[in-house]
Amino acid sequence: MEQQASLELQEGSISKNLVSLAAPTILGYTFQMFYDLVDMMWIGRISAEAVAGVTIFTTMFWIVNVLNEIIGTSSISLISQSYGRRDEDRTSLCVEQTLTFKALVAIIAMIIFSIILRPLLSFFTKDPVVSEAALSYGYIRVFFLPIMFSSYTVNTAFRCVGDAKKPMIIMVIAAVLNIILDPILMFDVVPGTSIPGFGLGVFGAALATVISITVTFIVGFAFILSNKTRVKIKVKRLFKLNLEIDKKLITIGLPNGVEALLRNLVGIFTLKFITYYGTETVAAMGIGNRLIGFAFMPLLGLSMASSTIVGQSLGYENLKRAKATARTATLFGSSLMMLVSIIVLIFPQHIMGIFISDSPEGIEIGKTMMRIIFPGLILAGVLMGHGSVFSGSGYNAPYLFASVAGRWCVQIPLMYIIVNMLKLQVEWVWVTFLIAEFVEVLVILYFYKQGKWELNRV
After folding, report:
1. N-to-C CA span, the chain
2. Which of 44, 45, 118, 124 has its CA nearest to residue 290?
C-alpha cells in the first residue's frame, strides 16, 4: 500500500498531482491565515497600540522560527527522498528524529527568548501601552513554542509522504477553534451578542492561539499513533537522538535558516525604519503583513506540494518530472497572484477598512502600501515555483544567496537612504520591497539554470 502511494506522484498528470497535493495544503493554510486576519481584526477593536504591540512581537518572534525553518526544510528532503526510495524504516526514523530534535531545540529557544523579550522590545518602542500589549501577547506564545514546533513537524511529515488531507484537517480545526475562542477570551461581552466573555484583551488572543495549537497537535499525533496512516513511528525511538540524522537536520536546512534569519532581521530593520513614521504606520504594516500572508498561502501550498513531488522524483531518479513540476508550480502560482493583485488594486481601501475603520490615516497608509507591494507577489510565484527544486533536492544555498542579494545588498541600503538621508515619504519604503523581490527572482533563476540541484541527494 505504501509503495503504491509513493508511485502515485510519479505517474499521471503533473498538474493533477500538483493540484491534488497542493489544494488541501492551500485550504488548510488559508483557514489558518483567515484566523490571523480575524485575530488582527479583533485586536484592532482594542486599539492601534494593541495592533502595533502584536506586530512588534510577531516580527521578533520570527527570529525563533529560524530554528524551525532549518530543521523543517531539512526534514522535507530527508523524509520525501526516503519515502521515494521506498525505505519505510528510514522514513519513520526521519520523522521521529525531526519530532524529537525540533522539540529539544524549541525548549532551549523558549528559555532564551523569554529572558530577552522585554529588553528587545525597548529597541522598537518607548510607548508603555504598546510594550504592555507585546508582552501580554508574547510570553504565553513563547512558553508554548515546543508544542508549536512539534505541530509543524506532524503536518510536514504527512505532506512529505503525499498525504496533504490530514494536515488540512488539523489546520482547519485550529483555525475554527481560534476564531471561536478569540472574542470569548478577549472581550467582556462577545461583540454583537450578549454572551459574556473573559475580558482578557490581547492576552486572550494569544491564549486562543496556544489552546488551538495544543489541541491540533494532539489530534495530529493521534493520527500517527493510530498506525493507519502513511506516517508511522516507533515511540521508543522518540527518546533517542540519532546523530547521523540530527546532523543532517541542522546542515541541510542551514542555508535556509541563515536566509530566514537574515530575512527576519530585514523585517526587524524595516520595522525600526517604519517606527519613524508613527504608530499608525506600524499598525498599517502589521495589518498589511497579515493580508500578504493570507494572499501568500496558495504559493506556500504549491511550493510545499512541488517540493514533495520533486523530492520523491529525485529519490525515484526521475529528473524530467522534477523539472516539469517546478515549471507547473511557477505557472499556477504566478497566475493566482496576478488575480489576487488585481483584486487588491481595485479594493484596497475597503480591505483596510475592515481592520482599522476608526483610523482614516491608517487606512490611507495601508491602501498605498497594498497597491505597491502586492504586485510583487507575482514575482514571488516565480521564486517559489522554481525554488521548490532546492527544498526537494536538499540543495538550499540559493535561497541564502538570493536573500542576501535582494534584501541586504539592495533593500536595506535603499531604506536607509530613503528614511535617514533623503527623508522621503513612507511610500518609497514600500517600493524597496518590489525591487528586492525582483533581484531575488533573478538569483533563484540563475541557480536553477546552473543545475547543481539536479545531482543533489540526501
Report:
1. 24
2. 44
Contacts of 166 (CB under 8 A, 6+ apart): 158, 220, 223, 229
Helix, strand, or coil (residue 196): strand
Question: Which cell numbers hold the place of 343?
Answer: 483584486
Cell numbers that stand for 53 in this block: 504591540
- Grid cell, residue 14, equals 503533473
- Cell numbers found for residue 35: 484566523
- Give the cell for residue 112: 532564551
Segments making up each domain of the chain, as ranges: 2-455
Query: Which helix (H) or strand (E) covers residue 122, if one does?
Result: none
Whether 52 and 133 have beta carbons less than 8 Å apart is answered as yes
- What is the torsional sign of CA 233, 147, 249, 252? positive
C-alpha cell at 239: 527518546
Q: Nearest CA to 366 among 288, 293, 433, 419? A: 288
Residue 263, SS3 per DSSP: helix
DSSP 150-167: HHHHHHHHHHHTT--HHH
pLDDT of 115-125, one tens digit each? 999 998 888 88
The pLDDT tens digits for 6-64 are 446 667 788 888 888 888 888 887 887 777 778 888 998 888 789 889 988 988 887 78
DSSP secondary structure string for all residues of 324-382? HHHHHHHHHHHHHHHHHHHHHHHSHHHHHHTT-TT-HHHHHHHHHHHHHHTTHHHHHHH
Burial class (CB in 10 A: 0-12, 13-18, 19+), 250: middle
- Taking residue 219's Cβ as centre, other Cβ atoms within 10 Å add up to 16
Q: Is 95 exposed, middle or buried (0-12, 13-18, 19+ CB in 10 A)?
A: buried
Q: Which three cell numbers stand for residue 150?
A: 512539534
Q: CA 29 to CA 304: how far, in whole Å?
A: 11
Partner residues linked to 196 by β-bridges: 189
Query: Cell for 444?
Result: 533563484
Please check whether residue 357 is in contact with residue 319, taking contact to mean a CB–CB distance below 8 angstroms: no
> What's residue 9's pLDDT?
65
The three cell numbers locating residue 47: 486599539
d(CA 178, CA 71) in angstroms, rounded, equals 26
Which pTM was predicted?
Answer: 0.71
